[in-house]
């Protein structure tokens, strides 16, 4: 992959080459083996115990976590020096995707290896890493992440839990509570955020069993019933000063950057969930007969399966593109080397924050794609989809929390344009310059180019989507200035335009890369043609959404003749020949129905 360090947010104003991204087709033999190991563990250890896990059997979950640790499935992100495998982020992404079918157990693993362990990986001192990481990688200790409180959810910095240094200077004494803590029923190590002297937001490593530290009762949840979710309480709990994680008053750097990684890993899990849902729906549609034939033979059912498959393909393309970027940025940060642990943590924080915007985009798109797939799978199952005997009923309930986890989708949508503007104002993106230059250009004639090459039309339309975002965003900045952050409806429309653009471009770049690499390999050429069909459908339908978002936003920032002028410009930007998506979806559906699984 080409050097793209610092590409965060640049997809809005610059184009990339297909060779500059990582795709599932680039998996190494080692990565394939890692995925196969996770699949074998899932089939051999998890599926046979599924009902017991779902009944919230603490002992069994802990036992299975230990087995996963023995197989190395919990140590992908932990450096080898501390008992882990030290794998790249593409590999750990594949692990998260594969284990997603483990339902509640996948959540227990995800919380442990992600937001539970990574704060120590990225921000721990050498002593903290040596003390905790080997056990966390082996599964002999389990981690939990404690940020949310009864009065602070999305507003994480509004936390009320306090910490004060004792007179001897040996311990911080914690008082307060945390809410909705995954793994809390059986975790050993807790990453806890509290305000030192009620003011300085700080992270602590807190061990189970400390005086004054107690665990509340299990919450009775709509879904993810096999995962532990409890409140936790601190009543004069003494935490050794050496268990401060990072620096006092710098807990926000840890919290927000770990949330970025958490959002990304959640998106990876949604890829696995969406693929599983496609397979369940296709198998049911092939087996269920109505009016004397399988319901899979009816075009409307086929269209649903095609749309579900397309959503999974696009999400997968986005997630691995982002994984490649994060990998490269973290490697560059590590290569800088040297300095104290705090400096290494600062480098890691900067590297992770580079793609904060893309992590939010992945989280929003992936969680909504899985929700869509789950809903359609239940619809395909009809009344049976409402019965617990069928897994789609559980997937439907389980998937709903994903739009709330790791920052609600509303908060993430607000973060997307906000983060972009911050990068622009710091001079990291030529956003405002590009937007100003575009204004005069848009009033000129826009003849359509010829579309002779595969996906040339889609590449052109993606470029037009970027121009549309710049045009609408530029007008919004002109009208509202700094007050734009108060116009939440407009910000969300801009965010949705960015999400659709990133999704289109990710699918297109992946498919173009597949076309270039296919060569004389008939199987690879067939997969590439299949990817072309899905990309063509998605881009055409995504552009319709972009146009709708743009119209709504323009009506908010312009009126009268100025609005009509801008709408005329938008119409020019949206012009392109249309494809017969009905027939394309029939072709896509036929492959899904034949294979009875997510297919490419």
UniProtKB/TrEMBL annotation:
UniProt keywords, alphabetically: FAD, Flavoprotein, Oxidoreductase
PROSITE patterns: ACYL_COA_DH_1, ACYL_COA_DH_2
Residues annotated as domain Acyl-CoA oxidase/dehydrogenase middle: 144-236
Needed co-factor(s): FAD
Start and end residues of each Acyl-CoA dehydrogenase/oxidase N-terminal domain: 28-139
Pfam short name (any one): Acyl-CoA-dh_C
Name of the featured protein: Acyl-CoA dehydrogenase
Species whose genome carries this gene: Paenibacillus sacheonensis
Lineage, highest ranks first: Bacteria, Bacillati, Bacillota, Bacilli, Bacillales
């Amino acid at each position: 992959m080409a050097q793209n360090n610092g590409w965060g947010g640049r997809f809005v104003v610059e184009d990339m080459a297909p060779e500059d991204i990582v795709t599932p087709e680039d998996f190494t033999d080692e990565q394939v083996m890692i995925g196969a190991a996770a699949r074998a563990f899932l089939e051999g250890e998890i599926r046979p115990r599924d009902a017991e896990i779902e009944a919230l059997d603490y002992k069994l979950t802990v036992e299975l976590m230990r087995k996963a640790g023995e197989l190395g499935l919990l140590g992908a992100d932990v450096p080898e020096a501390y008992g882990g495998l030290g794998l790249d982020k593409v590999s750990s992404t594949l692990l998260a995707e594969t284990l997603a079918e483990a339902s509640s157990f996948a959540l227990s693993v995800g919380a442990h290896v992600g937001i539970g362990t990574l704060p120590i990986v990225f921000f721990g001192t050498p002593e903290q890493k040596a003390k905790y990481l080997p056990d966390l990688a082996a599964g002999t200790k389990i981690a939990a992440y404690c940020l949310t409180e009864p009065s602070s959810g999305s507003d994480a910095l509004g936390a009320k839990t306090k910490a004060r240094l004792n007179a001897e200077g040996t311990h911080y004494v914690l008082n307060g509570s945390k809410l909705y803590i995954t793994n809390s029923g059986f975790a050993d190590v807790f990453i806890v955020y509290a305000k030192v002297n009620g003011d300085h937001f700080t992270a602590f490593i807190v061990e189970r069993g400390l005086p004054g530290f107690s665990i509340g009762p299990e919450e009775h949840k709509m879904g993810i019933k096999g995962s532990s979710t409890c409140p936790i309480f601190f009543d004069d709990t003494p935490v050794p000063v050496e268990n401060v994680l990072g620096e006092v008053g710098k807990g926000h750097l840890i919290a927000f950057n770990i949330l970025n990684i958490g959002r990304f890993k959640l998106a990876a899990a949604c890829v696995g969930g969406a693929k599983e849902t496609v397979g369940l729906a296709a198998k049911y549609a092939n087996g269920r007969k109505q009016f004397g034939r399988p319901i899979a033979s009816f075009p409307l059912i086929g269209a649903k399966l095609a749309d579900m498959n397309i959503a999974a393909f696009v999400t997968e393309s986005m997630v691995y593109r982002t994984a490649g970027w994060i990998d490269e940025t973290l490697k560059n940060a590590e290569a800088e080397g040297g300095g104290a642990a705090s400096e290494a943590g600062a480098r890691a924080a900067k590297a992770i924050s580079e793609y904060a915007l893309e992590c939010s985009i992945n989280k929003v798109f992936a969680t909504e794609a899985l929700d869509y797939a789950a809903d359609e799978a239940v619809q395909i199952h009809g009344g049976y989809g409402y019965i617990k005997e069928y897994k789609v009923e559980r997937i439907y309930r389980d998937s709903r929390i994903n739009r709330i986890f790791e920052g609600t989708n509303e908060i993430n949508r607000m973060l997307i344009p906000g983060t972009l503007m911050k990068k622009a104002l710091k001079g990291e993106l030529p956003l405002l310059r590009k937007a100003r230059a575009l204004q005069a250009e848009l009033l000129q004639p826009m003849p359509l180019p010829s579309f002779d090459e595969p996906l040339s039309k889609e590449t052109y339309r993606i470029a037009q989507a970027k121009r549309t975002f710049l045009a609408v965003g530029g007008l919004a900045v002109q009208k509202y200035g700094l007050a734009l952050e108060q116009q939440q409806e407009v910000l969300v429309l801009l965010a949705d335009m960015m999400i659709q653009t990133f999704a289109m471009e990710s699918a297109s770049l992946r498919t173009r890369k597949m076309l270039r690499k296919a060569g004389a390999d008939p199987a690879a050429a067939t997969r590439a043609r299949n990817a072309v069909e899905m990309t063509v459908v998605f881009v055409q339908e995504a552009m319709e959404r972009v146009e709708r978002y743009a119209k709504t936003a323009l009506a908010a920032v312009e009126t009268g003749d100025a609005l009509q002028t801008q709408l005329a410009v938008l119409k020019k930007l949206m012009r392109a020949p249309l494809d017969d998506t009905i027939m394309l979806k029939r072709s896509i559906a036929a492959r899904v129905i034949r294979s009875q699984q997510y297919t490419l």
